[in-house]
Amino acid sequence: MPAGRAKREESRFREEAKRLGTRLRSLRDEHGMTQEQLAALAQVAVSTLRKIERGHVIEPGYFTVLSLATALGISLEELRDQG
């Protein structure tokens, strides 16, 4: 794969990660939850949740994201929806 293509793909995933983090934080705020509360309910480390919300985790694990969505009482599709 050409170096330029790999760089574009990495950039695309970085933007997706930022959008996911922003959406997750927004939904958490709407539910009136702290990071600690959501992390405990989802059984995810608080540090992991913080990194996801900041967009620092480019490819969060499927079950991590599923656990967070479930803890918020929403589907994966709703978590991904940008409103």
UniProtKB/TrEMBL annotation:
Stretches assigned to the HTH cro/C1-type domain: 24-79
Keywords annotated in UniProt: DNA-binding
Superkingdom of the organism of origin: Bacteria
SMART domains named in the record: HTH_XRE
Cellular component, GO, one term: cytosol
GO molecular function: DNA binding; DNA-binding transcription factor activity
Pfam families per UniProt: HTH_3 (PF01381)
Protein name (record): Transcriptional regulator with XRE-family HTH domain
High-level lineage: Bacteria, Bacillati, Actinomycetota, Actinomycetes, Micromonosporales
